[in-house]
Amino acid sequence: xxxxxxxxxxxAPDDLRRVAAALLLxxxxxxxxxxxxxxxxxxxxxxxxxxxxVLQAYVAAARPEPPRERxxxxxxxxxxxxxxxxxxxxDAAGSATAPEKGSQGAxxxxxxxxxxxxxxxxxxxxxxxxxxxxxxxxxxxxxxxxKPLAVWPQDRSIRSALVAFRAAPPTGGRAIYTLDYGxxxxxxxxxxxxxxxxxxxxSAQAAVLxxxxxxxxxxxxxxxxxxxxxxxxxxSGPQLPAMDDRRFPGFEAGIEGAxxxxxxxxxxxxxxxxxxxxxxxxxxxxxxxxxxxNGDAARYRRARAEAVxxxxxxxxxxxxxxxxxxxxxxxxxxxxxxLAWQVLRRMLGQGMVDDxxxxxxxxxxxxxxxxxxxxxxxxxxxxxxREDVLRVTERNMAWxxxxxxxxxxxxPRPELLSTxxxxxxxxxxxxxxxxxxxxxxxxxxxxPEECERGPRGGSPFMTALLVDALMDYHALTGDPRVREVxxxxxxxxxxxxxxxxxxxxxxxxxxETDAYDxxxxxxxxxxxxxxxxxxxxxxREPRWIEVGDALADVGVKEMLVKEPKHWNQAMRAFxxxxxxxxxx
Length: 584
Hints:
disordered N terminus, globular, single chain, about 575 residues
């Protein structure tokens, strides 16, 4: 069936079924978010009563059939009143609509400021931003402007949309607005600020809103959605809200406590090209995973700060800003020379695409496209020289595939899809060259300090990174080959790469000089068990969750989170495992 254009007003039967499936998934997750929280859940008390009421109404309306019109609560959280008012005054300076003080100096209503939010949607849920409408906490319509940030490549529905509007800092620092999406009610007047009727009725305010279309992700008011919405949207892979994690409460408490008690503090670390540093294992992505699972403004601002820090300190752009590489690469690098291994693992496509899809910041998009273009142009040098750099170790292929998937997610051109499929072809062939299910390679070549003599084997934790990359690729393309590749990798991990006590994975499998048959690296379990979640998601075989849960229990107990590298290692994918298993 031909794919409908992005602005299609009607939904084909197959698309309608996808919309219904996505909304039923959202309803199930929202229902879980409305259930009575466990006493052990560290975030159980953070759900606003009015947010809970909106969610409960949403769930009730979504059964047994998705309603034509749908709503999502948008929580506005202001910084300290003084800071918000100062920012609002600066934002409104020179505007004809800025509030003025009375003749005797009495303060008027608090000034409005520009607020923006990037709202993600599940595949098939939204096809036209003109169907977005906003109401404030009193139910009054709020003029807004909106534009798509990215689409789901398979059906061209909107993956994330930027909405921008103006609001005064709410009394008490918080307010709950409601974003409606879907068909407008019959005969309803347009509410978008750029619609002709709205422009005529609110010409003075519309002029201000023209400026507010630009994203304001670091403004004095943060606008966030419930974690259940983020989970259902699949914007950064499947997730389970932290408040609903009844199975691994130790993870929730441990990961939060470790971040708060880290000494030196997480953000005290800088850039290092030879030692662990703050963004190892994609710090921005790990912190955005934390935010998505909690949905609060404080975690949003922390993840956002890390993404901005990475761009400012760890990326080097070409003069025309079309290419970007990590600062650890040689200054004279060009695409004719293969990027260094240590640089490949520092090109953080997942974290940057998270930042763009959740904030709309054009600097994040620029970073994704520039890193992706550098890797695209570097393919011949990476794979056609004296050795295939991408198959030297699973990690090299993983990071490249993650970044190119992020590139394709924001710019779904056929030539990018061709490059991405080429990587998938190489990955499938790589696994098929051996009988084990591993991505076999010369261990000594890749890890001479860990293995004096290979000659062929695999790395469980690096395989997990590659599976994570394959799942990003699969979400964008639906490539059916990923199912078998992931299932074979899971089988290898469970049957051959596991330690004899079945509590952890061998650091390296197949090393002739060290069997690595001990559980000393059980902290890596939290990085590896998402492979079993992915296998379950693709095959629906519950045995994968049984294996994953048993190893996750050990991983939580042995969790090592004393510095950013290890904290990121534990956080970057375990939330996805919980999202995969939530389908049970």
